[in-house]
Each structure stands twice: as structure tokens, then as C-alpha cells.
Amino acid sequence: MTTRSAIAAAFVSMVGAASALTLAAPASAAMPGPVAVAAVPTADLDLGSASGQARLKQRLERAAADVCGDASSADPAGRRWVRQCRADSFAKAWDRAQAQRTTAARVAAR
User: Fold this and answer.
1) Of the candidates 110, 88, 106, 87, which has an alpha carbon nearest to the alpha carbon of residue 98?
2) What is d(CA 38, CA 86) in angstroms, rounded to the nearest whole number?
3) 28-75 pLDDT per residue, tens
4) Is the CB of residue 71 less than 8 Å from the CB of residue 96?
5) How far is the first Cα of the chain from the last one, in angstroms, to the nearest whole number?
6) Could you tell me the CA-to-CA distances from 90 to 31, 63, 68, 80, 110 in Å, in that order?
7) 8 Å CB contact between 64 and 90
8) What local confidence, expressed as pLDDT, does residue 91 receive?
9) pTM of the model as a whole
10) Could you tell me which residues are beta bridge partners of residue 41?
11) What is the DSSP letter of 70?
């Protein structure tokens, strides 16, 4: 192992150990209030494997549900907002996770 690849491997493992995705509910004029945030740990996942990606997806979906909350079944507008909030929050966090994975792979390949 060259010095350069050893440094890249150390960086990737350091990024993996410290990584967590942050999920925030999007602001909306229809549903004002405080912005909720959730940290999703990723250091224990092998994001290069299908099972690691599946577990990450489950964690992000759960975090989006926690961040966006629930709406009463008697409130159709609130239910639509919650559904959209969850979809938007998950999509942003998923994109961020894939970007982190790509960056780590590029660093490791150097």
C-alpha cells in the first residue's frame, strides 16, 4: 500500500466513522412552525452493498416520518403536507447520502 492510498483509506474510514446525515423538514407557508431536525447515523453501514443501502433507506424514511410528524385523518390538507414533507425530506437526504458515498469512493480511488 502506498502512502497516498493509506492516507485515502484513513480518510474514508474517518469519514465513515464520523458520518451522519441530517434530515430537516422543509419550510412551508401552509404548515408554519419550528423546523425539526434528525441525525441519521451511517458509520455502521456498508453503503457499497445493497443491504447497506436498504438499511440506509429504512433509516431515512423513519427519520423523515419523525421529522414531518403526523396529521389528523380529519385534516386532508395536513395529510397532504405530511406526505409531501416526508417525500421531500427523504429525497434530499438520499441525494446527500449518495453524494457522500461518491465522494468517499473517489477519495479511495486516488
Assistant:
1) 106
2) 13
3) 545 556 678 888 988 898 888 999 999 999 999 999 999 998 999 999
4) no
5) 12
6) 18, 8, 10, 15, 31
7) yes
8) 93
9) 0.68
10) 20
11) -
Q: Which cell numbers in the block locate residue 83?
A: 406526505
Grid cell, residue 48, equals 457499497
Cell numbers representing residue 65 in the block: 416520518
- Using only the alpha carbons of the chain, give its radius of gyration: 17
Q: Which three cell numbers stand for residue 52?
A: 447497506
Q: Are 59 and 38 in contact (CB under 8 A)?
A: no
3-state secondary structure of 61: helix
Distance separating alpha carbons of residues 46 and 43, to the nearest angstrom = 8
Amino acid (one-letter) located at 44: D
pLDDT value of residue 22: 63
